[in-house]
Amino acid sequence: MALPPQDERTLPAVVLQDVDQRPLEHALAELQSLIDQHGHVIVVCSQAAPASVERRLHTVRALLETDRIALFRPPLPPLGLAVLARQLRQLASCDLSPGVLASAGRLLTHYIHAGALLGSVARLDHVPVGLKSHARSWMPGSQFGVVAHPVPQLVRIGPEAALDGPEFGTWLLVARGQLPADWVAGTLAPSWRVQGLRETPLPAESPGWWGTGRLTEFCAYLPDLSVLYQLVTSVRQSTCHWCGIDVIGDRCVFCSATPPVYDTGKDTRGDAAEGHRGVRALGHRRDPALGHRRERRALTR
């Protein structure tokens, strides 16, 4: 996931190695050190990672009793996720607050087109596979073009094969696996009108995510920092009512709070309706009986 820098302003990434296998105190010390150095930490985690990784990250966050760690697991293939992580590293050099930067991950996900050229779709779980395509995947020499995000697509490679791509200018990042990338570079890239093509090693998680090692993964993305910055800053910002951090979108990425819903006006249905509204309103208030530490524990459960 730690792709080479896109430009000289791209900040380096910190890779959390074997976070679910090392002793818990080691992971606690590592995350605490990052918080002490940088103030806030955005953890981008692949959905291909074992469930034990997510559990360990939530455990560390709860034990540290902090709302300065954002856990983000977008529904992207490994290469697309690596591209998103690099875009956040690019934006980290700008004058964006931690909450806005972390929220930008959800926004930029919509502008990533991620897919792969596969030699088999028999074990593909992340994109719907029809019975005919499943049967053809057992035929020698069959190849399939697949887009997993933003809209699932699957075609068998042939003279008329085509995949819908982005309607805006992008670059294409290609990671060669055990399948030649001729169709991606010679057919897909021109049809998507990409402005450039770069290559990178195949992520280690890719064969497991796509269900085969016979693949070449690709991702169309926005490379220009100025465009990324304009996209993020053009979205209305708000302040999280719980932790007070600036965010974009309807959910705080650090404390997971959503905007409260306030009832206004008189309800003519009587005391029962009034009591119901009272319960809902209480759901958005901090309990004064809870201490600071207990509030944090309640938030992370």
Automatic annotation (TrEMBL):
<protein>
    <submittedName>
        <fullName>Uncharacterized protein</fullName>
    </submittedName>
</protein>
